[in-house]
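Q: I have 331 residues here and want to know how they pack in 3D. Can you give me a structure?
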Amino acid sequence: MTIPAVSSSDTVISDDARADVVVIGGGVAGLVLAHDLARAGRDVIVLEASDRLGGLLRSGNVGGVEIDLGAESFATRTDAVTRLIADAGLPLEAVAPRPGGAFLVLGSGEDASAVAPASAVAPADAVARAPLPRRTVLGIPADPLADDVVALIGLEAAERAAQERAADPFDPADGPEPSLFDLVARRSGVVLAERVVDTLCRSVYSRSAREARLSDLHPGLWRALCAHGSLTAAAAELAQAAPAGAAVGGIAGGMWRLPVTLAAAAEAHGARLRTGVRAHALSGMRGDLRVETSAGPVGARRVVIATGPCAARALTGASSATGEDAAPRMP
């Protein structure tokens, strides 16, 4: 693709602002790439616009204890995280969740009486807590009338969700794929979409269900929905009988330790990690690229944008005509 020129291209790039590879974005993806390249002997600079590395993995201090404020676990459908820990030699321990399963906590902004049995509900200004249903996928229940589903969304909303299987079959050819929130709200009711699906989407993927699509988050569930025409039937095909939250793992001390430790390992191999540096534009050609940043220009033979397609389009001026989430190819 063609990279546009920028007006500040006459500014001289200093030697300490040059690298074999510049990685834009200091989330886990950017850090993994920086670590592997630096370990292989490449000169790498990571540019992170915020004041911290880690992306969706972050920590905060509550009562003197450092806890996860972002994602608190990882899916164990693959061995990607444990393999990363072993391959990079990180001093981290992967741990399994406690056997009690996962819980959904509703704050004071929710109407607690609508989501749990009266005997289990705290006062309206307190926090309500209920187990996640056993047989759900992304919060979509295989049995909407199960007791653990009713405990979360109430009987009326559960009955509304139970009608989904008898509704007109979903047809992916009817139009563009809606957001996950709209898909669930239309077919199974707004309460299920808001109370369970959106909450889990924010917790697991650190994004609202209104900003995500099922085909992106769970291709297997999307294929089952297209095959059966029903969210309930699709969830029934894929749902496991294990306690909710059992198909995840964690890091002893918190998931936030993963990017912190990985960043230290990358630096030990020579990677230069720069926070508080925002990339504005990209110009040049393969082998001689230039990144305009808030701290001055940076030169590189290769550039990797590890911040997502929207940022990639903003940096390169690429058109989104190929699809809303299509990231441009870099030279």
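Q: Anything worth noting?
A: The longest strand covers residues 298-305. The longest helix spans residues 190-205.
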